[in-house]
Design goal:
The chain is mainly alpha-helical. It has one domain: Tyrosine recombinase, N-terminal domain (DNA polymerase, domain 1, Orthogonal Bundle). Helix content is 57%, strand content 3%. It has helices at residues 2-17, 22-42, 53-65, 70-89; strands spanning 113-114, 120-121. Strands 1-2 form a two-stranded antiparallel ribbon. A hairpin with a 5-residue loop joins strand 1 (113-114) and strand 2. Helix 1 packs antiparallel against helix 2 (22-42). The longest helix has 21 residues, at 22-42.
Length: 123
Amino acid sequence: MRDFFAQHEQFMIVKKLEGHAEKTLQDHVTFMRYVQEWMKSEVKDYENRFVEKGLFLEYVAYMFGKDYKPCTINVRLRTLKCYLWWLCSEKLIPDDITSKIKLVKSAEGYKGTFDTSGDKTHV
């Protein structure tokens, strides 16, 4: 997992060169820090774990256990999935596991957001 976190710096350089907003870039850094802190405190022998879906499903279960709202979980999952997809596209991990890590449903059953009129929209 050391390489997993070390490669995030390269990922952030790529995202910055792609012209992403400063808030987006900061969110990527913040949410990756949350994942790293979770692994250090909650995952036994995390440094020897592989990048696989089970590990990230444990993270989702952890967030549910801490009563995080679905929206919060999904924001964190989206940034994580973006990074995982990049790792796969750069051939740094063997498989694209992003499709196996699903966003969670809110109480209303939507994964989306509200537009300015207050109507629900799907993602």
